[in-house]
């Protein structure tokens, strides 16, 4: 994935084809997670999204022309003016750089030496925090996995799928000249923002970045990340597709091919990160411009339960905008989900695989080994192999190439290194700087992936680089000095047995501090083909393979667009519930493909199933339940409330059951009394959790099933952590 915004630095997990310059990859980024020179300050008083007289009715949006809305906006403006007056009197060095009233009642403040404690001394301030820094987080086989084409049939076919729904891409821009975004056959639309970068398909183009004004940045798609994400959401139906000179045996389509798009560029030009206020400005603008869904394939460091960007995402959901967010690429490992993917009401995506790739054969003498070509220079290249052993490396006993080598130490040779913890661009750059003419990178797990460039602003390496399978490491380590050939061309291969493997980089829950289940649901995020700008390939049309939760997120955003089209009166939470609570369980497998994974904080409810979501007959709010951390010796019992709504259009009688309980010493409970609901009616139910005193420490989970007779209509994950 290319850029993410900067909360914590969730590294992008994008793997591009050969020419995609700025695409991120699945190695972890090392950028800063906060900007201590500028704060986001939440003031007392509800924003428009949650204030009782301005928040919209279920399934509706805020009415900005309403008298009550105008009056309350004026009150909030006066409150902000009072704060600015307080600031001038008490902290004259500080300056307000941005104002918000829709998702948050807040201001952005350049501190200029002032402290957060000094800001919080104002009686007008609810909380103040440093701004997070966010980064971009790198039949169609992926559409087949989520059964998109079957969903299209219920919406009038591919020529209608997504029609009339607007999806905001909060990212690095959209290349409006790409054939994925041709407006041929689209009705005339009101075009917003910089019309050099809009048409009747991409109907808005705006830039939001603190550096934009001073540096003359525009909404133009310079980086490739946003264009790739946008293609996954809504590339026009059956756009002919070629990757790295290889024509694919299918023509790609977005999940919602007739949806309209908005370019809300928070990573303009070569800017690799964005501040909290940039993202908040983009979200509020997209909402006011009438967009139904926002895609944020970005992330940063979570700041606990008072993380203001997550508060904003939650509030926008309550104001009826669905916000799909990447979980992040910092896995494996617990509590690695970033912000704002950690928001309770975000539709948070984890990544799983699609079993297809373009395979290049690297030759050791005359023996071929399957590989994937990185997004760097072009082959062919033939030279002796230099095996860079490192006994201290936990990855294959090879150098990670994260630090420079001695000048000239690799002259005229191809370096054998390992995937590890630094960006692929860093590795290949270090090899080239030492005189290497190519690189072979051994994966740190079985299998292959495409290596993408990172957007660090430094010159990208120009030598070819190829990834080989960890299973072949012994053969390569034994080949020091052997003539090695890196190929120029590859071959497309598809293998459905490699679908639905968990991505080894996908971030895991629970969320920090409050121990909430995340991600919500899995979607394809490994080996995803989509559009990239013309500058990133040898000849149009331009497409590339990327990897990352950034790539999974637009599958959810496109799915949400189809649901918004089919069910225009549904609230945002009903759309989220349909996607999360009807997902296919027990389909995501480990990297070997032999073990089904059920950990709620790794795979959520399962992998999204679009036809099932469109047929959802009941919604749950919240979509999952966490009972938080419970001390082992406490012997606690507690309950949580879930709101059930009958979305079927007819009266139905429901029953509830707890199944698939995992972990001893903890029990989950619910009444099994039947519940009869009229069409559209709601009720609340209590879910209990009882932890025995001295219960074994660790994660405990179960599944709440909602049934009509023997048919399971929905299922939600339940979770508690004994510590």
TrEMBL record:
Alphabetically list the UniProt keywords.
Answer: Cell wall, Hydrolase, Protease, Secreted, Serine protease, Signal
Every copy of the PA domain together lies at 382-474
Q: Where is the signal peptide?
A: 1-22
**Which residues constitute the catalytic centre?**
171 (charge relay system), 225 (charge relay system), 550 (charge relay system)
What PROSITE patterns does UniProt report for this protein, alphabetically? SUBTILASE, SUBTILASE_ASP
An example Gene Ontology molecular-function term: serine-type endopeptidase activity
In terms of domain of life, where is this protein from? Answer: Bacteria
Q: Where is the Peptidase S8/S53 domain?
A: 162-589
Keyword Membrane: yes or no? no
Under CDD domains, the record lists: Peptidases_S8_subtilisin_Vpr-like
**Which Pfam families does the UniProt entry name for this protein?**
PA, Peptidase_S8
What processes does the entry annotate via GO biological process terms? proteolysis
Query: What InterPro entries does UniProt report for this protein, alphabetically?
Result: Ig-like_fold, PA_dom_sf, PA_domain, Peptidase_S8/S53_dom, Peptidase_S8/S53_dom_sf, Peptidase_S8_Asp-AS, Peptidase_S8_subtilisin-like, Peptidase_S8_subtilisin-rel
Among Gene3D superfamilies, the record links this protein to: 3.50.30.30, Immunoglobulins, Peptidase S8/S53 domain
To which protein family does this belong?
Belongs to the peptidase S8 family.
Name of the protein in question = S8 family serine peptidase
| Source organism per UniProt | Inhella proteolytica
């Amino acid at each position: 994935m290319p850029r993410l915004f900067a909360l914590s630095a969730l590294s992008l997990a994008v793997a591009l084809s050969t020419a995609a310059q700025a695409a991120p990859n699945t190695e972890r980024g090392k950028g800063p997670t906060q900007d201590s020179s500028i704060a986001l300050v939440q003031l007392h008083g509800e924003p428009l999204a949650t204030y009782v007289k301005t928040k919209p009715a279920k399934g509706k949006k805020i009415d900005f022309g309403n008298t009550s809305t105008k009056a309350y906006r004026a009150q909030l403006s006066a409150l902000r003016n009072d704060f600015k007056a307080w600031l001038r009197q008490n902290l004259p060095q500080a300056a307000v750089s941005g104002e918000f009233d829709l998702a948050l009642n807040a201001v952005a403040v350049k501190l200029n030496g002032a402290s957060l404690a000094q800001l919080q001394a104002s009686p007008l301030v609810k909380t103040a925090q440093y701004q997070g820094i966010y980064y971009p987080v790198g039949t169609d086989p992926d559409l087949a996995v989520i059964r998109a084409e079957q969903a299209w049939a219920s919406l009038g076919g591919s020529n209608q799928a997504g029609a009339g729904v607007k999806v905001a891409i909060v990212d690095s821009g959209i290349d409006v000249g790409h054939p994925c975004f041709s407006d041929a056959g689209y009705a005339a639309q009101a075009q917003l923002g910089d019309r050099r970068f809009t048409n009747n398909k991409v109907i808005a183009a705006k830039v939001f970045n603190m550096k934009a004004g001073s540096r003359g940045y525009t909404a133009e798609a310079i980086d490739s990340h946003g264009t790739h994400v946008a293609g996954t959401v809504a590339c026009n139906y059956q756009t002919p597709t070629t990757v790295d000179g290889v024509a694919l045996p299918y023509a790609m389509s977005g999940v919602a091919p007739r949806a309209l798009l908005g370019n809300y560029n928070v990573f303009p030009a070569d800017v690799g990160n964005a501040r909290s206020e940039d993202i908040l400005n983009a979200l509020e603008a997209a909402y006011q411009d009438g967009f139904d869904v926002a895609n944020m394939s970005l992330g940063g460091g979570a700041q606990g339960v008072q993380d203001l960007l997550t508060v904003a995402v939650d509030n926008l959901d309550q104001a009826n905008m669905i916000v799909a967010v990447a979980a992040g690429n910092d896995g494996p490992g617990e509590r690695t989900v970033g912000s704002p993917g950690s928001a309770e009401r975000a539709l948070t995506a984890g990544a799983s695989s699609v079993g297809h790739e373009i395979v290049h054969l690297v030759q050791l003498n005359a023996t071929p080994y399957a590989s994937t070509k990185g997004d760097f220079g072009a082959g062919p290249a033939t030279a002796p192999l230099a095996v860079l052993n490192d006994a201290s490396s936990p990855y294959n006993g090879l150098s990670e190439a994260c630090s420079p080598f001695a000048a000239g130490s690799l002259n005229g040779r191809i370096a054998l290194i390992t995937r590890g913890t630094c960006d692929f661009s860093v590795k290949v750059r270090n090899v080239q700087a030492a005189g290497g003419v190519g690189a072979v990178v051994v994966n740190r797990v079985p299998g292959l992936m495409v290596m993408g460039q990172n957007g660090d602003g430094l010159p990208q390496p120009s030598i070819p680089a190829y990834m080989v399978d960890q299973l072949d490491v012994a053969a390569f380590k034994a080949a020091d000095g052997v003539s090695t050939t890196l190929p120029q061309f590859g071959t497309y291969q598809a293998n459905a047995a490699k679908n639905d493997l968990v991505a080894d980089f996908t971030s895991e829950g629970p969320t920090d501090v409050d121990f909430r289940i995340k991600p919500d649901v899995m979607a394809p995020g490994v080996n995803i083909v989509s559009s990239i700008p013309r500058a990133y390939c040898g000849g149009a049309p331009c497409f590339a393979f990327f990897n990352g939760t950034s790539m999974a997120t637009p599958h959810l955003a496109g799915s949400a667009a189809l649901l918004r089209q089919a069910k225009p009166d549904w609230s945002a939470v009903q759309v989220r519930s349909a996607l999360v609570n009807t997902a296919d369980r027990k389909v995501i497998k480990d990297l070997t493909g032999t073990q089904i994974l059920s950990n709620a904080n790794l795979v959520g409810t399962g992998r999204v199933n679009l036809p099932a979501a469109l047929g959802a007959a009941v919604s749950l709010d919240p979509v999952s339940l966490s009972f938080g951390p419970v001390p082992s010796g406490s012997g606690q019992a507690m309950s949580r409330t879930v709101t059930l709504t009958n979305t079927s259009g007819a009266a139905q009688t429901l029953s509830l059951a707890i199944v698939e309980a995992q972990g001893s010493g903890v029990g989950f409970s619910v009444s099994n009394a039947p519940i009869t609901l009229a069409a559209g009616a709601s009720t609340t139910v209590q879910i209990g959790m009882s932890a025995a005193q001295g219960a074994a420490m660790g994660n405990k989970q179960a599944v709440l099933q909602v049934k009509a007779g023997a048919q399971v209509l929905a299922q939600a994950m339940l979770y508690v952590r004994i510590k």
